């Protein structure tokens, strides 16, 4: 996500972006090497051994980007992977863990709503307790998109490939292997659109990209049900992109960017149609609405009333000196001096950095979705 261009690039989103784009040449070999290494490793059996008996919650498989990542990006240095450096993780667990927040992220709250532990991040699977590996895995990685985003992170198709490679069980037999019956969560927060907007330096390019992204996402969702054998698939919609600090900074945090928000709404409407066509009875898919709970707190339009829980609904807790497009949370100068300011209490802020919510924000959003997830998963 990258803030680039003045005209608010439509979707801005989570993850590392700009910087990564600038540093592609340098990152590519590293990331590719890391990936190769990963993929050669024996699979950990994440889930295969966990034929759950009745009563045990189903395994949870997570696909997506930085809103859901719990460590998959890996540590490639402060500049490229901020989430592995302070002040990320200050609130929880008190040190950086690759989560793009001061604490817990969406995946943690979804797992909690389901009554299961946070699934192990794919990249960290070797150190995980075998018991935990049977309960699912998180493949989401910061910077990822439905399609490639130029960040050299696994797109969602590739994340699903990874799941399938780990589960060469006859997942085609519906109701077959132990893994059939799992719950998938798909979190798409807009990196595809940031990429499109940056590439052409235009918001209209991002908007024009919506049908392509949603069509590909539809295929990924279909695969999760028809090929990966997921019993339930929870898909998030886009938050009001134009209310992220990336956009609102230019307005001194007084309002949101209406064009970016309209783009998000357009994506959401298209996604809803796709789900209605794939699953008219709402049996397999749940559209998890992030847009409304975000908007309730950050104010989708300047005039919109804000609920008031967050004293600072739009100003990020971790604010860079760099101004629009420059600097990042956690940046230091050559002497190790901070090039950002940190708020006193992240719980008063909805946003942690330019695009990612605080733990307190995710907790507030989770209050809105927890009952929906529970009801959906308990329905037959
Ligand atoms: C991007 O577009 C804006 C206005 O549309 C223009 O002012 C700016 O110079 C452009 N930036 C680049 C890098 O082309
Ligand atoms: C997703 O990533 C895979 C593996 O890198 C690549 O082959 C494929 O073309 C990508 N798909 C899209 C839609 O970008
Ligand atoms: C599963 O289905 C896919 C496509 O429908 C097919 O290509 C693949 O060979 C099947 N795998 C098995 C193990 O039957
Ligand atoms: C931005 O808002 C702050 C208070 O919220 C105010 O002190 C400051 O003067 C404003 N800056 C501009 C450029 O309007
Ligand atoms: C499925 O869910 C959508 C909202 O996401 C709702 O509009 C529709 O009526 C539901 N369909 C059924 C059959 O319950």
UniProtKB/TrEMBL annotation:
SUPFAM superfamilies attached here? SGNH hydrolase
- On whether Aminoacyl-tRNA synthetase is a keyword of this UniProt record, the answer is no
Keywords of the record: Hydrolase, Lipid metabolism, Signal
- Quote the InterPro entries the UniProt record gives: GDSL, SGNH_hydro_sf
The region annotated as signal peptide is: 1-33
Instruction: Indicate whether Hydrolase appears among the record's keywords.
Output: yes
Q: Name one GO biological process term.
A: lipid metabolic process
Molecular-function annotations in GO: hydrolase activity, acting on ester bonds
Q: Which family does it belong to?
A: Belongs to the 'GDSL' lipolytic enzyme family.
Name-wise, this protein is: SGNH hydrolase-type esterase domain-containing protein
């Amino acid at each position: 996500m990258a803030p680039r261009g003045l005209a608010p690039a439509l979707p801005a989103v989570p993850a590392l972006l700009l910087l990564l784009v600038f540093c592609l040449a340098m990152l590519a070999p590293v990331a590719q090497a890391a990936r190769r290494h990963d993929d050669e490793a024996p699979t950990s059996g994440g889930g295969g051994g966990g034929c759950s008996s009745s009563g045990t919650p189903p395994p949870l498989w997570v696909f997506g980007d930085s809103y859901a990542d719990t460590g998959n990006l890996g540590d490639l240095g402060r500049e490229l992977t901020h989430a592995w450096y302070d002040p990320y993780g200050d609130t929880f667990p008190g040190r950086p863990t690759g989560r793009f927040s001061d604490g817990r992220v969406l995946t943690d709250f979804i797992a909690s709503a389901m009554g299961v532990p946070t699934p192990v991040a794919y990249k960290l699977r070797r150190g995980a307790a075998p018991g935990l590996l049977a309960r699912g895995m998180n493949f989401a990685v910061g910077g990822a998109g439905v399609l490639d985003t130029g960040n050299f992170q696994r797109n969602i198709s590739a994340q699903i490939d990874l799941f399938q490679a780990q589960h060469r069980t006859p997942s085609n037999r519906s109701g077959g292997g132990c893994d059939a019956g799992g719950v998938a969560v798909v979190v798409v927060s807009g990196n595809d659109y940031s990429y499109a907007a940056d590439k052409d330096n235009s918001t209209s390019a991002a908007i024009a990209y919506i049908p392509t992204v949603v069509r590909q996402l539809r295929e990924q969702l279909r695969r999760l049900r028809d090929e990966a054998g997921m019993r339930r698939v929870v898909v998030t919609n886009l938050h009001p992109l134009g209310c992220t600090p990336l956009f609102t900074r230019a307005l001194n945090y007084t309002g949101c960017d209406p064009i970016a928000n309209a783009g998000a709404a357009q994506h959401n409407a298209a996604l809803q149609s796709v789900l209605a066509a794939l699953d008219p009875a709402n049996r397999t898919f749940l559209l998890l609405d992030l847009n409304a709970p975000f908007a309730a707190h950050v104010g989708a339009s300047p005039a919109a009333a804000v609920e008031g829980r967050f004293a600072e609904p739009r100003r990020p807790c971790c604010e860079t000196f760099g101004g629009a497009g420059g600097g990042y949370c956690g940046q230091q100068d050559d002497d190790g001096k901070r090039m950002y300011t940190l708020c006193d209490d992240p719980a008063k802020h909805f946003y942690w950095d330019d695009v990612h919510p605080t733990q307190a924000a995710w907790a507030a959003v989770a209050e809105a979705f927890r009952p929906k997830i529970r009801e959906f998963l308990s329905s037959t």
